[in-house]
Design a protein that fits this description.
About 40% of the residues lie in helices and about 20% in strands. It has 14 helices and 18 strands. Strand 16 and strand 17 form a beta hairpin.
Length: about 450
Amino acid sequence: MDLLEFYGLKEDPFRLTPDPMFFFPSAGHKEALMSMEYLLTQKEGFCLITGEPGTGKTTLMNVFVENWRDRADIALIVTPRLEAAEFLRAVLDDLGVPRREGAGKADLLRDFRDFLVSRRESGRAVAVIVDEAQDLPDDTLEELRLLTNLETDKEKLLQVILIGQPELEERLASHRLRHLNQRISVAARLAPLSRSEISEYINYRLIKAGKGFLLLDDSAARGVYSYSRGVPRLANLLTSRSIMSAYLEGSNVVSPRHVRLAASHLKGRESGAASAAPSPASRRGYAAAAVLAVALAAGVGAALYVYGGPDEPLPPVASAPEAEATAATAAAEEAPPAGEAPKSPAHSPAASPTLAPAGATGTAPVASVTPSTPAAPADGPATLYGIVNVSSANIRSEPSIDGERVGVAFRSQRLPLTGETRGERGIRWYRVRLYGDTEGWISGNVLTLVQEQKSP
């Protein structure tokens, strides 16, 4: 079972690609998007959007292009290291303006103006968007300024959006580019997200990806903020690795410890191996980080388990099918002879549940778990749990090893039992609650049953 299936997600919520579907409308990003919208609706000349790397500039650009796809012709230039003549040809090609063979620059500009006028008459805007605009040569920036001289008496025929890192602002403030700087009518700068916005951002992306069974507590979100300082790209990277760390332990809750482990892995990759030998207390964390790194490199096609005990070494990694196969073998060896009552799984008779009368499903009756111990004292009811005693075991849609796998349980995981039945070869199966209202069946051969008294 892969990570997305394990958590019930439809797609990766924290991938690094600039997908418009995952655009998070923070206050700063909404202001920048409105600035771009204003440019096209009011036929202004230039708009400037700046921000540090990873703050969401390219995603913002993709959202804007998607919003205006049916209302404007947009030339999107993402390789800005072009000389002035090359840049003009790239713009014309991206807009679909026909170029006559052997045409000089004057002919190209005339054809471009004719194109702009025709689009204005049909009610469509025309825009040029340059990503990573801080890399544009000065001569190309000047060429862009001259292109915006194509206008009527009332409005500009071409709008230009420059998107780049903060050093672009410094370049535009120089004496040589002062004429272009004076034409920038709207500007916005993307800042990192605030601490509260990071929590909202993480939850927003999880919802967009299908939400599933994954939970990330507030303290873990604070850890993500501390490491990323609110930069969305870094937050994505750290949250993705934190989820992977939780997945390796079979947990549906991302805790601060998972965030610290992921941050340790990422910082180690950035700074290289430390020259000093690790202390004994830190070796277990390094071992877990190594497992995480290997799993990330391999894509993690199977569910893994990382032991979290304070002083014990990492056990061998076992897959869920292997655990269930072992359980099935054990059950076959314990199968009762013909005419003899089936044996119970190997656990204390005092904790052994019995079947209360109930409606039948499949080949055996299913009932709520009713312990055969004396009645619970008046101070509160008893609850029966199953604790997984193998590395990992499958949870099935029905009490059979042929049932569809709906989840995986891991060693020491504690599962509330809500019903029981017997399947093939006398195997006792228990109905367990997974997440929310989702339930499934797990073999009794991989459980140790415990009974807890609840306080009133």
